[in-house]
């Protein structure tokens, strides 16, 4: 009986997190608040609700990529960025987001390729971290200095 109650409680929580009956706008607002408060699992749950109802919601896809990076889930971030790319709506910092996602996954060469040509401080940080991952400490030092 105790196992049944635990299962029932878990299912109830899952249904509540799924946001049944919640509008995409309300879910997006709540996800934004959760993201700002660093409650990434809660933000993700709200964004899942939005994207189930509005799969091409650019703002939700963008936030989902950033939430995935914060969790950290590089594969999930890349999936959201790829969806934005198919829509022709990549954010201005897409190279840096892709680069960070590759870093999270330990793909240092891919991270370097993603930020190739980007000159933001974030791109140089990603380069430096990728070079550290590759064991090129002098190169990383130069990237940090830049």
Q: What does it look like?
A:
75% of the residues lie in helices and 0% in strands. The chain contains nine helices and no strands. α6 (94-104) runs antiparallel to α7 (108-114) and α8 (121-133) packs antiparallel against α9. It is elongated. The protein has helices spanning 2-18, 24-36, 40-53, 58-70, 74-86, 94-104, 108-114, 121-133, 137-145. The longest helix has 17 residues, at 2-18. It has 146 residues and is an all-alpha fold. The model is unreliable at 6-16 (pLDDT under 50).
Name some characteristics of this structure.
146 residues, 9 helices
Structural class: mainly alpha
Which regions have little confidence, pLDDT < 50, spanning 5+ residues? Answer: 6-16
User: Cα-atom Rg, whole angstroms?
Assistant: 18 Å
The number of E-state strands comes to 0
Number of helices: 9
Q: Distance between termini? A: 63 Å
- Beta-strand residue fraction: under 5%
The pLDDT mean sits at: 90
Instruction: Write the element-wise H/E pattern from the N-terminal end onward.
Output: HHHHHHHHH
The percent range for helix content is: over 70%
Overall 3D form = elongated
Query: Strand count, sense and closure of the main sheet?
Result: none
């Amino acid at each position: 009986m105790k196992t049944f109650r635990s299962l029932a409680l878990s299912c109830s929580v899952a249904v509540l997190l799924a946001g049944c009956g919640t509008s995409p706008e309300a879910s997006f607002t709540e996800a934004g608040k959760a993201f700002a408060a660093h409650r990434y699992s809660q933000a993700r749950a709200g964004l899942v609700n939005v994207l189930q109802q509005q799969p091409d919601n650019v703002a939700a896809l963008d936030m989902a990529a950033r939430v995935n990076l914060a969790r950290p889930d590089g594969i999930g971030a890349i999936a959201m960025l790829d969806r934005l790319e198919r829509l022709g709506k990549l954010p201005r910092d897409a190279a840096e987001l892709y680069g960070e996602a590759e870093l999270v996954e330990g793909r240092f060469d891919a991270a370097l390729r993603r930020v190739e040509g980007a000159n933001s401080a974030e791109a140089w940080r990603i380069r430096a971290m990728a070079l550290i991952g590759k064991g090129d400490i002098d190169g990383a030092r130069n990237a940090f200095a830049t």
